[in-house]
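Input chain follows. Return structure tokens only.
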Amino acid sequence: MKKNLMAAGGFIFQPRTPVFFALALAVLFLAATGCTTVQPKPVAETPHSESLILREGDVVKISFPGSPNLDTTQPIRRDGKITLQLVGEMTAAGLSPSDLEKKLSDAYASQLVVKAVTVEVVSSSIPVFVDGAVLRPQKVVSDHPISALEAIMEAGGFDYAKANLKDVRVIRYEGDREHTYILNLKEVMTGKPGEQFYLKPYDIVHVPERFSWF
């Protein structure tokens, strides 16, 4: 009686051997997972005063008690930097106020008699953009942490005749990389509890339209 043999990658497998079944299961698994889109889990930023991180758009007041002529109040630019007398540009975004104080103390170490620097956040400006199936697509500027749903409401709310609440997109650029988060806001709008997705400066919130033949 002849035995059926299968060749793959230079190896011979008998169809009923354990190796064959293991290979078959692996192929089926890869085929199944290859067609699945994994949506990144949104991570909400919960602001706490003890862990405040400076970011683009924040207005900081920098004071030098021993050299008030160096005092400055300015916004952190979109590139994350501020410009200071004597030392020039310095990256502030991504640091805590205390971290920036230490960085400034080191930078000015040879020029200060009183080696003390204080950093205070005067205001926090979070500009985001909302477009798609909302009543007033626009740039939304908030002075406090804002969620995707809150930003949509600031843009007049959903256009319920068109909006697909299950597939709201948040597009975020970090460096040269683009990240897209998919949010199901229909559940939130129907009263189901859910974790808020907080936005970062210059995020784009896009509300797509539902597909329709008409």
